[in-house]
Amino acid sequence: MADELLTVAEMGRADRAAMAAGVPGPVLMERAGAAVAAAALARWSPCPVAVLCGPGNNGGDGFVAAHLLAERGWPVRLALLGEVAALRGDAAWAASGWTAPVERLETGVLDGAGLVIDALFGAGLSRPLDGPAADIVGEIGRRALPLLAVDVPSGVRGDDGAVLGCAPRADLTVTFHRRKPAHVLLPGRLLCGEVVLADIGIPDGVVEAIAPRTWENGPRLWGARYPWPRPEGHKYSRGHALVLGGAVMTGAARLAARAALRAGAGLVTIAAPPETVTLYALSLPSAIVLPAPDGAAFEALLDDPRRNAVLLGPGAGPGEALATRVLAALARDRSGVLDADVFTSFAGGLEPLALRLHDRWVLTPHDGEFVRLFGPLPGSRLDRARAAARACGAVVLLKGADTVVAHPDGRAAVTTNAPPDLATAGSGDVLAGLIVGLLAQGMDGFDAACAGAWLHGEAGRAVGPGLIAEDLPEALPAVLRRLKADA
Ligand SMILES: NC(=O)C1=CN([C@@H]2O[C@H](COP(=O)(O)OP(=O)(O)OC[C@H]3O[C@@H](n4cnc5c(N)ncnc54)[C@H](O)[C@@H]3O)[C@@H](O)[C@H]2O)[C@@H](O)CC1
Ligand SMILES: Nc1ncnc2c1ncn2[C@@H]1O[C@H](COP(=O)(O)OP(=O)(O)O)[C@@H](O)[C@H]1O
Ligand SMILES: [K+]
């Protein structure tokens, strides 16, 4: 499945470009409807079907699919929101191929149905569902009917996966040409069920011309630049990460350091408060643990240019001391990750960071931390992460079930492989460690954030139920072995 995600406007451009290149609208609609019918035939045994059509082209796809399923002998009832006479363009053409009755959109059309095809609204959804459309969506849920959604479950907004009014939960969603953000962002992703991407013959070259800026996160995005160890390499050629260790919450930096080592950093130094040196050293034999009693000692560690990537925040404790160390790291030519307590330390005061950040730094806030630093930005998680990256000049990774990575230049990726088992204390520290480990090996900020989030998700899946954060670094070798085998 292609990784690019098209906005509704970009998909409209793709449709128009295809038509301009000589593929007529009805041909696109015929192929879209045929893909819907094929998906129904592939997944369900013949059964009575209720096809629910809306007033636009999404409804047009429904008319085509209804016709093809009826041709195959499936008992089909079709109901339309509005009047046939009001249909325009390709949808009117599609309706003309349906000679059986067109029913009014009422819940009675669901009686006896073994499958519902939802072709009410797709890309054209412009306001919350109400009236008969909302009634029937509610009834589909109450009756728990199997559902195939055309393009998106009706009520889900294509650009951000938000639900306008209400939307049904589909078992299968058939979408066309490329997926939309709604197929990967929550809650849309959860309402789509399985997503099938159908080729409707939009010519090669259309996507390249549109040059989309959003992707599903996965190895195809960054795998070619993954920093596998080279035969002639040595530990000094694999980067050296410096992790600021806290005095009280020592687990966070320990998890992060371990993850940085597992990600392949050649060396990891933990800058530790003197009284904690033994603790850090005993629990992490492969890390270097050095005492850093004050800011000057930390700066001395930073001054060694071999320590090329820095992680600050996990377990560090918020406040002036952390803020000073962050600014010291940013004053040097390093890459790094800012996480956790950094966001509290700079709450409401982005400017000192924004002045110094650049795109070899990655900020990894969860939603709460994000608001603390960037304020309540409007829009979807994609919009907010993009706006934040632009505002601070660094890569922003907004954590959650649908983690978004955004670059200041507008590129963004949505991570879809993370299981909810990752929602456990310390899991974010591991993520920060993975990213700093990849940065130390020379990956750029966007690649490192995307790769780190994806590896984190895969490690989470490998462990599954019962996962605790300590398991994640240990799960990494098997994940990396598979990644390398597939490369
Ligand atoms: N050539 C094309 O443009 C193609 C379009 N395709 C299909 O066409 C769909 C997009 O078609 P449209 O742009 O016509 O949009 P839709 O069919 O999604 O809906 C547009 C219509 O619904 C009305 N509407 C929007 N929200 C409403 C609400 N909440 N309550 C009541 N009415 C509402 C609008 O006023 C408009 O009349 C895609 O999702 C896809 O399924 C496919 O056939 C492939 C080719
Ligand atoms: N429901 C979920 N599904 C998938 N991943 C999740 C979910 N909730 C949280 N996560 C992931 O778990 C990690 C939690 O990080 P964070 O909130 O910083 O925890 P901590 O500070 O305890 O380490 C993040 O990578 C986040 O994306
Ligand atoms: K739909």
Brief digest:
The strands form two sheets. The chain has a ten-stranded mixed sheet with strand order 8-17-16-15-14-13-12-9-10-11, with helices on both faces. With 487 residues, it is α/β, with parallel strands linked by helices.
Bound molecules: ligand NAX, adenosine-5'-diphosphate, potassium ion
Radius of gyration: 26 Å
**For the largest beta sheet, what order do the strands appear in spatially?**
8-17-16-15-14-13-12-9-10-11
Q: Which ranges are low-confidence, i.e. pLDDT below 50, for 5 or more consecutive residues?
A: none
Overall number of structural domains: 2
What is the CATH superfamily label of the largest domain?
Answer: Ribokinase
**Annotated CATH topology of the largest domain:** UDP-N-acetylmuramoyl-L-alanine:D-glutamate ligase
Q: Give a quick account of the main beta sheet: strands, pairing sense, barrel closure.
A: 10 strands, mixed
Q: What is the structural class?
A: alpha/beta
Classify the beta-strand content into a percent band. 5-15%
Mean pLDDT: 97
Second CATH tier, the architecture of the largest domain: 3-Layer(aba) Sandwich
The CATH class of the largest domain, by name, is Alpha Beta
**Shape verdict:** elongated
How many DSSP H or I helices?
Answer: 19
> Roughly how many Å apart are the termini?
17 Å
Number of strands: 17
Tell me roughly what share of residues is in helical segments.
40-55%
